[in-house]
Amino acid sequence: MTTNTILPQKIRRSWLLVPASQKERSVTAAKSNADVVLLDLVEFVSDRDKPSAREGIAETVRELREGGAEVFVQVDSELLYADLHACVCPELTGIVIAHLESIAQIQEADTLLSQLEDERGILSGALEIVASLETAQANQDAFQIATASPRISGLTLGRAELVMDLRPEPSGEIHLMQYLMQRLITVAGAVGVQPYGAWCREPDRGLLATPENTSNAAIRGRAVGFKGSFCVLENQVEPLNSGFTPGAQEVDEASQLLKQYQAAVTEGAASIRIADRIFDAGASLQAQATIDRASKIAVHDQAKADAQAGRPVPAP
Amino acid sequence: MSILIRRSNLMVPVTNDRFVQGAWRHGADAITLDLEDGVVPAFKASARGLVKDAVAAVGKGAAEIFVRVNKEFMEADIDASVWPGLSGIMLPKVESPEDVIQASELLRALEGKRGIEPGTLNLIVLLESANAIWRVREIISAGERVSQVGIDESDLSAKLGISPLPEYDPFVYARGRVAIEGTAAGVQPVGIAYPLGAMASLLPDEDMLKIATDSKNLGFKGIICPHPSWISSVNTAFTPTESEVDFYTQVREVFAQAIAAGTAAVPFHGRMIDVPVDEWAKVVMATSTACRQRDAEKQTALAAASR
Questions:
Q1: pLDDT digits over A216-256, tens only?
Q2: Other residues' Cβ atoms within 10 Å of the Cβ of residue A309
Q3: Of B236, B256, B288, which residue is a domain's last?
Q4: B131-to-A111, A197, B180, B199 alpha-carbon distances in Å
Q5: A276 and B165 in contact by Cβ < 8 A?
Q6: Do A282 and B15 touch (CB under 8 A)?
Q7: Which domain, by its residues, includes B115?
Q8: Contacts of A62 (CB under 8 A, 6+ apart)
Q9: B269: part of which helix (H) or strand (E)?
Q10: Confidence band (pLDDT; 50, 70, 90) for A6?
């Protein structure tokens, strides 16, 4: 069993969902500044359009990768063979498995990815899996799912589909959503993968979320431990990027605190009082984590800007 | 019904002589001498030499005495801590059942050598990672010695990369899991309602009483206190009030009369009194009695030591 308690530090704040059936959308997506472009073969592609959407999807993956974003493809847990054969290429970072129901499906995807890596000249084990848990059963099994393959790098939960299992309140909110989000974040932390999601409020989902509400959902999401979230409109990308980035003031306060704390430690004191707050070793670790995260994001954003400007892309 | 009363547990850095000498006066049910986060790295080794005298100094008010050890120096720290007067060890950063087993073995070996009744030293386990929260059941079931379990929300926040905001509690699930698993395993869950666990601060007594009462209502049995100003509110919040005791005394009488009259459910002051309410009444009254005994012990010791 994995006992990695340090979360991987890949910066994936914004995942822009683009229907693979709409080629023209991928052109604008490339300029959206999303950390990840998620080409979708599931939610926004009708059954009739799936064969044509699969055609040429690998080419789209390559084009998007050149623009600096990481590229994932969202595949159907029931159509893994066709979806994975269509999208696997060296420029792909990984797949999001929608409607994930069982550990067997993870194992099936893992085996298929291994075969395709082998056939297509991709480093063995490089392709990642993000599991989207959208049923009560999948959420119950979250830990087993997250440890079913070393490829799993992230977990998320699908709110719209969960409504089918866990009825919403009259407001549209799922009463258990807070519980489910925090359980997922705990499992992700225990396994050492990233939890993705935002703390949305009805009806602020998908197409209806304004940039401002997207930003608030990201800020709430980050405050409970999510590392990034999904969106469907380009004007939701920046709110996610900024909402999941420690603000300048926050980083400044963290630096100040750390300085004062370190000064106290050299004097022999292991905690400091500022006004009514007590800051201890844990608080100093929090401050350090905030500073580290902000500097990793700065490096990431610079690399993305370089790629967008056509400068050489560093190895992912 | 034997009930452990350990409502307030005051953390005191063993290297701060002024705090150590004054700790017994604050009325805490327990005092934990800190060798871990309360002691800066430069003093870790010398701090061990202070524990034996500190145990004697902080015990004057009849508080139970614990030592918080460093996980990475567990053996040396426990060896420096086991002296008559000690109630047990606070074990931080526990990640697995093996950590509990290792500490238990060390305690067992030292109890014999240092003239302490075998099996009496107990453990307060602190969980500080998502992994530990997830494995709480295995961890707290790993030995008979675990008496309490709590979350260090400050360290947990850092590990999860969370900068907590006061409006959005990130640990509703973690706290609930620990409260339920602890209760189920017969291990007292300790902890405090948001946001004081993740961001400790000093509050006016009235606010402190409210947050301590909220903590009791989350299922916790006590609070680890980083500052003496928390203690009296915490003790009050975890002690059944006089009006609760009056009410449940009457509940027991009314219910006994109902049973004698051939029914097991009876209305009383707008509430239905039945078996679970009567059972709860027994718990409240036993808790009240145990709190009174504990407070009397502390008062006697305090009076004797103050003379």
A1: 999 999 999 999 999 999 999 999 999 999 999 999 999 99
A2: 8
A3: B236
A4: 28, 20, 17, 22
A5: no
A6: no
A7: 8-236
A8: A89, A91
A9: none
A10: very low
Could you tell me what percent of chain A has a pLDDT over 90? 74
The residue in chain B having the minimum alpha-carbon distance to the alpha carbon of residue A181 is B173
Distance CA A289, CA A239 (A): 22
Which of B121, B73, B66, B106 shows the shortest CA–CA distance to B90? B66
Please tell me whether residues A184 and A264 are part of one structural domain.
no
Pick from B13, B131, B162: CB nearest A5: B131
Cα A285 to Cα A145, A226, B138, B166, B246: the distances in Å are: 30, 18, 27, 18, 47
Residues of A in contact with B167 (CB under 8 A): 223
Residue A307 confidence class, pLDDT cut points 50, 70, 90 = confident
Cβ contacts of A273 on chain B, cutoff 8 Å = 202
CB-closest option in B154, B168, B203 to A282: B154
Cis ω before B97 (30° cut-off from 0): no
A283 contacts on B by Cβ (under 8 Å) = 154, 199
Q: Measured between alpha carbons, how far is B91 from B152 in angstroms, rounded to an integer?
A: 11
Residue linked to tokens 């969370």: B162
Q: Helix A80-87 vs helix A57-66: angle between axes, to the nearest 10 degrees?
A: 50
Residues in B closer than 8 angstroms to A290, CB to CB, are 163
CA distance B15 to chain A (A): 9
Chain B 36-95, residues with CB within 8 Å of chain A CB atoms: 37-43, 95
Cα–Cα distance for residue pair B133/A229, rounded to 1 Å: 24
> Of chain A residues 143-172, which have a CB less than 8 A from chain B?
143
Q: Note down the domain range covering A112.
A: 14-243
Three-class secondary structure of residue B268 per DSSP: strand
Same domain, A278 and A204: no
Residue B160 tokens, joined: 């999860």
Whether A249 and chain B come into contact, CB under 8 Å, resolves to no
The count of domains in chain B is 2
Among B37, B167, B174, beta carbon nearest to A282: B37
